[in-house]
Amino acid sequence: LAVAAVPEGLPAVMTLVLAIGVMEMAAENAIVKKLAAVETLGSTTHICTDKTGTLTQNEMTVRYVRTPSGGCHKVKGEGYSPEGDIENANVPEMEWILKISALCNDSHLRKDENGVYSIVGDPTEGALVVLAYKGGLDVQSLREECPRVGEIPFDSDRKMMTTIHKCDGKYYAMSKGAVESILAVSSYIQVGEEVRPITEEDRKKIIETANSMASQALRVLAFAYKEMAEPDEDTAEKDLIFVGLVGMIDPPRPEVPGAIKMCKTAGIKVAMVTGDNPITAMAIAKEIGLVEDHEEGTYITGAELERMTDEELRKIVKDTKVFARVSPEHKLRIVKALKYHNEIVAMTGDGVNDAPALKMADIGVSMGLRGTEVAKEAADLILLDDNFATITKAVRRGRIIYDNIRKFVQFLLSCNLGEVAIVFLAELFGWGSPFRPIHLLFLNLLTDSFPALALGMEGPEKDVMERPPRDPNEPLLDRKMTFLMGATATFITVAVLSVYYLVKYVWQFPHDVAQTAALATLVIAEVVRGFAARSEKEWILFTPKMFTNKYMNWAVFISIALLLLAMYLPGIDRVMQLNPVKDIRLLTTIVIASLLPALALEVAKVWYGRRYES
Question: Is residue 70 over pLDDT 80?
């Protein structure tokens, strides 16, 4: 009875299925660092994702330059190729915009043997290097003529970068960054050849222009400079001269709208968390289908977050679709607020400062291409292609794996439950045990394990991404599984005991023949039931879908082959203490009885679905 009660193959099957699931995710560009994360992925209710490089292609191209005197200058060309030109580029401010683009920059343009251009460094800075080339500058020569003598690197709080250069014996501070950040440190504006104090009217006009550009899904950067007596970093970002705006496009990844739609259908909320301008972020959000055209007030800025209490943030965090101009610290607050509502949160990040938010999230997602080692270490999932659609694939795979775990657990436990009932009732009725211990070990370790493993590699249910996320606190053995296990175990018990009684007491065969018939009935019943167990909702048996899982086909073949070897191969039959079954009555009875549990499972799951899930 003890041998019958223990599902010996369950731990091995569980480990193998999770490991295979991790390998399948890796094939889809998602590296899972912890096996436990596989199950959590299937429960994800909220995905907080970066914009640049995750929702977009991370291939910036400058489209427009706006100068105080020359208006709008269209930039021609595609990608990182320096071929193209700038309309009306002969205005004085353009000279400074091009110099700042080349010098306040850490990226380099590279051309491979096939003549294809690419960027070494940040894509945004790469687009500015290309702009400088299109404007007629020799970037490398300019960098040699104007060496960098000081630098204030970009950070998420200042949202700007400044470098100091020595050109022709003079020192210049050159800055680029968010429009509001550059305007905050600019005291002057250059209009043509004239440099004059910047007025409130100037600031208002610049902001209106930037917002207009951002509404076209352009990422907008402002540019400023000043001459310095000495290369003093403490004063480099004071009293700058504003010279213009640059608008660049980073197109959405073509697969992202479909992934967003899939998330909505699956009951998963998606929020964009970006350091970009809110208008740009909203334009991209609408383009990818994250925000509908009529939803105008669905974003929150980092400045607004700063003013909110935790209680205020909790009230609006679940329904906010865009968080703009946010810092890594804000990401952490967002995760905490969502988890307050028992949301299962996936948060993306790539920087060192993102690590706390990644650790706090239920699923920390790091970028494989541009993520720092610190972010990767803190994450549970690494995206090899930095693509939002890969997160959706990982969530889908997590749901498939959880469904398959339910299937093979139900399969194995119902078999063991049936074995216990068979042995117990046979002894209770005084019929003697239908099995020897070696029979049950043979069944649990060999013939049952192969179909269970095949169930672990089953494909998705048709509604896998059309149902809401499951509650992580929901027990694996829920009402439905308990019902199906009970129904299946009951019919297994009835089928095996009926064959055992018929062979031993009605047809008066020896006890070892009755045991062999009982074991054969149980093995065949289990492997045939493996087909029915492939879905908790659909009828599989005797339909075109019955043989679509090649692993199950092989599992059934191997299990039946092992049974036949154990019954008919000389020597092994004695070790297994089995008697070859040759009587046609016995063979027919075994086959017919073996089909009953599988048919019962099909009827039970269809009835349950109509009764409780319709």
Answer: no
Number of residues assigned to the chain: 614
Q: Enumerate the β-bridge partners of residue 56.
A: 252
Domain-wise residue ranges, the chain:
2-22+394-613, 37-56+253-386, 61-249
CATH value of 2-22+394-613 in 1.10.238.10, 1.20.1110.10, 3.40.630.40, 3.10.129.10: 1.20.1110.10
**Residues forming a β-bridge with 222:** 177, 245
Nearest CA among 518, 513, 527 for reference residue 562: 527
- Give the architecture-level CATH label for domain 37-56+253-386: 3-Layer(aba) Sandwich (3.40)
Burial code (b: 16+ CB inside 10 Å, e: under 16) for 446-464 equals bbbbbbbbbbbbbeebeeb
Is the dihedral angle over the CA atoms 398, 402, 407, 412 positive or is it negative? positive
Q: Are 444 and 416 in contact (CB under 8 A)?
A: yes
Whole-number average pLDDT of the chain: 92
Rounded to the nearest 10°, the torsion over CA 531, 536, 542, 544 is -100
d(CA 419, CA 372): 54
Segment 113-125, tens digit of pLDDT: 888 898 999 999 9
**pLDDT at position 4 over 80:** no
Cα atoms in the Cβ-side hemisphere of radius 13 Å centred on 156:
18
Q: Copy the structure tokens of residue 297.
A: 């007030």
Pick the CATH number of 61-249 from 3.40.1110.10, 3.90.1150.10, 1.25.40.180, 3.40.50.300: 3.40.1110.10
Cα(103)–Cα(114) distance, integer angstroms: 28
CA distance 475 to 456: 19
How many other C-beta atoms are found inside a 10 Å radius of the C-beta of residue 211?
Answer: 15
Question: 342 in helix, strand or coil?
Answer: coil
**Residue 50 annotated among the catalytic residues of the structure:** yes
Contact 268, 42 (CB under 8 A): no
- H-type helices in 449-571, by residue range? 449-456, 479-501, 511-532, 550-568
Look at the alpha carbons of 227, 231, 237, 239 in this order and tell me if their dihedral is positive or negative.
negative
Q: Give how far the C-alpha of residue 384 lies from the chain's centroid of Cα atoms, to the nearest Å.
A: 11
- What is each CA distance from 437 to 31, 400, 574, in whole angstroms? 42, 35, 14
Residue 7 has pLDDT above 70, yes or no: no
Catalytic residue, chosen from 50, 202, 380, 403, is 50
Per-residue model confidence as pLDDT tens digits over 524-563: 999 999 999 999 889 999 999 999 999 999 999 999 999 9
- Residue by residue, DSSP assigns 447-466 as ITHHHHHHHHT----TTTTS
Q: Kindly report, residue by residue over 499-527, the tens digit of the pLDDT.
A: 999 999 999 999 999 999 999 999 999 99
User: Is the four-CA dihedral 276, 282, 286, 291 of positive or negative sign?
Assistant: positive
pTM metric for this prediction: 0.84
